[in-house]
Design a protein that fits this description.
Layout lengths: L1 E6 L5 E7 L1 H4 L5 H15 L58 H17 L3 E4 L9 H11 L4 E5 L4 H7 L6 E4 L5 H6 L2 E5 L1 H11 L1
Parallel strand pairs: 1-3, 3-6, 4-5, 4-6
Antiparallel strand pairs: 1-2
């Protein structure tokens, strides 16, 4: 098991903690990470693009003029796609872009994402990140003191003060353990784990 220092918000070492090799020391495969991130991004697509087809256009269905004898092209009703204001041919309709990846693959990808941060020495464990009030300046000061770059802060439970205090700081995101995901781990340079959240992460994989 890897041993990691536990620090306080001033950057001072408080204690040490062991991180499970089954979660934080897994061989990383980029293809698996890519597949799971692609799944996450596809699920976020709104898929609301739409056009009006011929049947959706409001207008008369009467034939514009007689079939023969006018010297003009044969024409149906005013909703024809060939006319201005007519329906659109082969245009997009609302759809879902979401697709599923097997649960075992998703769990493995999450372990790989955590392991990649461990291998890059981009994991910092804090004993606590408690705030008495909503104060962005306090969080910004702690981040500067710890020299964190684009941190993803993982908490063990809902912390309204921390979540609201950090939301206006560029590059900073606070997640609870249940919201931990591959994309956010890879998208942030530093993974900050509040110490109690580690047991919850291990429990999540044990379930």
């Amino acid at each position: 098991m890897a041993v990691v220092e536990v620090k306080n918000t001033n950057g001072d070492k408080v204690s040490e903690i062991e991180l499970s090799d089954e979660i934080f020391n897994v061989p990383v495969k980029k293809s698996i990470l890519h597949e799971v991130v692609r799944m996450q991004m596809a699920s976020r697509r709104r898929g609301t693009a739409a056009v009006k087809h011929r049947s959706d256009i409001a207008g008369s269905t009467i034939k514009l003029y007689r079939q023969k004898g006018t010297g003009r092209a044969r024409r149906g009703n005013i909703k024809s796609p060939l006319l201005r204001g007519g329906g659109v041919v082969f245009g997009p309709d609302p759809r879902s872009y979401a697709f599923k990846v097997p649960k075992k693959v998703r769990r493995l990808a999450l372990k790989m994402a955590l392991s990649s941060k461990m291998q890059n020495q981009s994991i910092i464990v804090l004993d606590a990140f408690a705030l008495d009030q909503i104060k962005t300046k306090t969080v910004a000061s702690a981040i500067k003191q710890l020299a964190l770059k684009k941190p993803l802060i993982i908490t063990d439970s809902k912390d309204t003060n921390l979540e609201l205090s950090s939301r206006n700081i560029p590059g900073v995101k606070v997640l609870r353990v249940e919201g931990l995901n591959v994309y956010d781990i890879l998208n942030h340079e530093t993974l900050v784990l509040v110490e109690p959240s580690i047991k919850q992460i291990e429990g999540r994989f044990a379930a």
